[in-house]
Amino acid sequence: MEHPPIDPSLGGKAEEQETREKILSAARQLMAQKGYKGATTRKISELAGVNEVTIFRHFKTKVAILEELLKDILDVRQQLEQGIQGEYADIKQLLVNYARTYFNLLVDRKEILMICMIEADNQPEVVKLFSSLPVTAVDVLCNKLKEFEEQGHLPKGDPCTAALMFISTFFYAFMAKYRVNVDLDIEEEKLFENASDILLQGINCKKTTKQ
Amino acid sequence: MEHPPIDPSLGGKAEEQETREKILSAARQLMAQKGYKGATTRKISELAGVNEVTIFRHFKTKVAILEELLKDILDVRQQLEQGIQGEYADIKQLLVNYARTYFNLLVDRKEILMICMIEADNQPEVVKLFSSLPVTAVDVLCNKLKEFEEQGHLPKGDPCTAALMFISTFFYAFMAKYRVNVDLDIEEEKLFENASDILLQGINCKKTTKQ
DNA sequence: AGTGCATGCAAGTATTTACATGCATGCATG
DNA sequence: CATGCATGCATGTAAATACTTGCATGCACT
Q1: What is the CATH number of the domain that holds A153?
Q2: Whether B199 contacts chain A with CB within 8 A
Q3: Which nucleotide across the nucleic acid strands is nearest to B40, CA versus C1'?
Q4: In a domain, B3, yes or no
Q5: Is B205 exposed, middle or buried (0-12, 13-18, 19+ CB in 10 A)?
Q6: Distance in angstroms (rounded) separating the CA atoms of residues A155 and A145
Q7: Quick one: B190 exposed, middle or buried, by C-beta within 10 A (0-12, 13-18, 19+)?
Q8: A210 domain-assigned
């Protein structure tokens, strides 16, 4: 019923794109909440504001919608590595920045991540997609910490566990906020900062750090 | 078809209890994997090795099964507090012990926790049940750390974030292992210990701690 | 004016699913 | 032996669900 703005660069496809996007968006939202089975094609069509048949004109089957949605998780490593490459005043600033980058990546993909989590056992490939984000985040951070250790900027330790703890913290904060709606009683920026402090100094350590 | 061993203490109810338990166990397993909708009464009956009708002789409706399952999460605080009360050689030992206690509590309830996570948006009360475990774990640990700070065993800091980081680590490890089947490349006991070390000393700190 | 294309609407189909009913079986206990 | 009780089995039902088909509408572009 809606018609495309006259935009020659899009050809005649603007309308099609729009409905397709509306369907995908509605499906993403519903599947994240209710799971694949809970997101019926009827509900999707209602939320998208289109007729149910229209869904099947755009997607051969319901799983095709899911498969389309799942394409959005990939290529995360690059963004994470970018967030860790720049110049920072000190390691703490790097950590705070990395925490923010990672948390925002999670939030940007929250619906798809939820779908993967919920559907983990029904769609096996989904597992890899889901886990790839935190696993990559741990890996990238771990490598950076190792680098610091080799350069003498950090004492030798267990960078993998450290990275795991750091990433876990924001993974949990993310789940608490967007899946379970628990209030953690701490602002995100404050959490990034305090967690970075604790990761660096621990809770039992005098603050005697250089730089 | 099976008949109860002659056990007067159980009266004539042993048989009934047994099938009931078989149904609950099958439902727990399936719902944790496939979600509430994915666990059809037919599949439950097959896994339980009973006839589908038998399910409805024991439970009025399918949700009644779910409700029954959800009763198992409660009363966690007591167990967590017990695990933190005893005498320990040093704070690190206390942390390692607490980590183990918490992780085991998660593992013991893994199916129900997964169900809660998956069904979070469909069964609203479920959310509270699910979140209660990590939230309580953070709370109990946070209180203990505050106590240490007041007694001068730890410098003043941010015990809440510290507790959150610690609990998050094992929450993530738990999810990785039991939901996503990711191998973290570290044994659990080792993880408990290394995480405790890092929480206490950080990664940028000379080991000059009294305990 | 005419053609194509995306969509809406009404109706239908085959399957799945939660749940019901009636009947038969077999053990246990009085 | 008789009664009760838990279960199996066959069958049924009403709703939901993924997906189909046929037809009408209205905009866009030629």
Answers
A1: 1.10.357.10
A2: yes
A3: C17
A4: no
A5: buried
A6: 10
A7: exposed
A8: no
Do A129 and A116 contact (CB within 8 A), yes or no?
yes
Evaluate if the CB of B3 falls below 7 Å from strand C: yes
Below-70 pLDDT ranges, chain B: 1-17, 122-124, 206-211
Residue B28's CATH number? 1.10.10.60
Note whether A103 and A52 are same-domain residues: no
Whether residues A78 and A164 fall in one domain:
yes
> A209 vs B209: CB contact, 8 Å cut-off?
no
Question: Do the Cβ atoms of A158 and B193 come closer than 8 Å?
Answer: no
Looking at the complex, does the CB of residue B191 fall below 8 Å from at least one CB of chain A? yes
What residues of chain A lie within 8 A of the CB of B35, using their CB? Answer: 35, 37-38, 118, 122
Q: Determine the Cα–Cα distance for residues B31 and B141; give it in Å rounded to an integer.
A: 31
- Tell me the two tokens of residue B155: 């410098």
The count of domains in chain A is 2
Residue identified by tokens 């993967």 is A116
Cα separation, B189 vs B175, in Å, equals 17
Sequence-distant contacts of B141-145: CB under 8 A, at least 24 apart? B141/B84, B141/B98, B141/B166, B141/B167, B144/B84, B144/B94, B145/A203
Domain residues for A157?
74-201
Coil, strand or helix: which one is A9? helix
Range in A42-56, A85-99, A117-131, A174-188 the model is least confident about:
A117-131
pLDDT of residue B123: 67
Looking at the structure, tell me whether residues A67 and A98 fall in a common domain: no
B29 contact A CB<8A: no
**According to the model, what pLDDT value does residue B128 have?**
78
**Residue that finishes a domain, picked among B26, B56, B71:** B71
- Asked whether residue B1 is assigned to any structural domain, the reply reads no
- For residue B148, tell me if it sits in a domain: yes
Q: Which amino acid is at B28?
A: R
